[in-house]
Design brief:
The structure holds two protein chains of two kinds. Chain A is an alpha+beta fold. Helix content of chain A is 23%, strand content 38%. Chain A has helices at 33-41, 43-49, 136-144, 152-164, and strands spanning 14-19, 22-29, 58-64, 71-77, 85-95, 99-103, 113-121, 124-132. In chain A, strands 1-2-8-7-6-5-4-3 form an eight-stranded antiparallel beta sheet, covered by helices on one side. Chain B has a domain at 6-77: Arc Repressor Mutant, subunit A (Orthogonal Bundle), CATH 1.10.10. Helices cover 70% and strands 12% of the residues of chain B. Classes of the chains: A alpha+beta, B mainly alpha. At the A-B interface, strand 1, strand 2, helix 1, helix 2 and helix 3 of A face helix 1 and helix 5 of B.
Chain lengths: 165, 121
């Protein structure tokens, strides 16, 4: 194992299904909280990290009005999809620099509510991303389909890239 | 990938929601064990462990066979792998995103530091 240049031994991504309808992803970042918040709330920064480079997906456009009541639209293109895919929703609650809550409405009313919180301690910012699905079946389906906008093929490519890394 | 009915998924996820049962699966991943071995390892009554193993068995995560007077448990056919693979894939996607976010954050910090240096001059 090689030493990471950021020395982030504590920054591994964890994921846990905390209930039938809830999924929690956590990660710590070696950066102050206000910068982590900026990277999640400014479109120019957000679009630089949201799509893994290894994924055969392009973020065509990214519009984000990150304030309570604001909305967002992310448009992706994928070689296998004839049309670009739009993902959109509203910001239910935005409290800089500690909390963003948004809806995911591309699937109609059956979308999950995502809450991300940022807590800073000793120079580390811990991001906790909590997804609340409308039903157990919706979360099962999201997980079974490889989740969100990623299909098996995408993940196989991602696996391959990660294995080389 | 094996396709699951939602009833099977219910059972598998319910079985995995308990720390003891995840521990049992980890143990069985190393070696088969009898129910009484498992009960000892997890400081639990035989009846309590039988219940946990029963839930894992219903979910297909564990299978048991009676050998003489002892009931031996072992991992069921590949189901745990499928359920955990989904979570692991999802985790890897986030890890790939977050590695990129690390780079963005490093750059922002550098900008901030440079800006602070300039303004103190």
């Amino acid at each position: 194992m090689h030493a990471d240049r950021r020395g982030d031994t504590s920054s591994g991504t964890t994921i846990e299904r905390t209930s039938d309808r809830e999924l929690v992803v956590t990660r710590s970042f070696r950066a102050p909280r206000h910068l982590v918040f900026r990277a999640w709330s400014e479109a120019e920064l957000f679009k630089r990290w949201w799509v893994p480079k290894s994924a055969p997906i392009t973020l065509v456009s990214c519009e984000m009005d990150v304030r309570t009541g604001g909305s967002y639209t992310l448009v992706f293109s994928h070689p296998a999809a004839p049309e670009p895919m739009a993902f959109f929703g509203r910001y239910v609650e935005v409290v800089p620099p500690s909390r963003i809550v948004w809806t995911n409405e591309e699937a109609g009313e059956a979308g999950q509510i995502t809450t991300v919180t940022f807590e800073e301690q000793d120079g580390l910012t811990r991001a906790v991303m909590h997804d609340l699905y409308p039903s157990k079946e919706a979360l099962d389906a999201a997980l079974a389909s490889g989740s969100t906008n990623w299909n098996d093929e995408t993940f196989e490519q991602l696996d391959a890239v990660l294995a080389e890394a | 990938m094996v396709q699951f009915s939602s009833a099977q998924l219910d059972l598998a996820f319910a079985a995995l929601s308990d720390g003891t049962r995840r521990g049992v699966l980890e143990q069985l991943g190393g070696a088969d064990a009898s129910i009484s071995d498992l009960a000892d390892q997890f400081c639990m009554t035989l009846t309590g462990m039988k219940k946990h193993v029963g839930i894992l068995e219903d979910a297909g995560l564990v299978e048991t066979a009676k050998i003489g007077r002892v009931r031996i448990c072992r991992l069921g056919p590949q189901r745990l792998a499928d359920v955990s693979t989904w979570l692991e894939r999802y985790r890897q996607m986030w890890e790939a995103r977050f590695a990129q976010l690390d780079d963005v954050l490093n750059e922002l910090q550098l900008q901030e530091t440079n800006h602070a240096r300039r303004s103190t001059r």
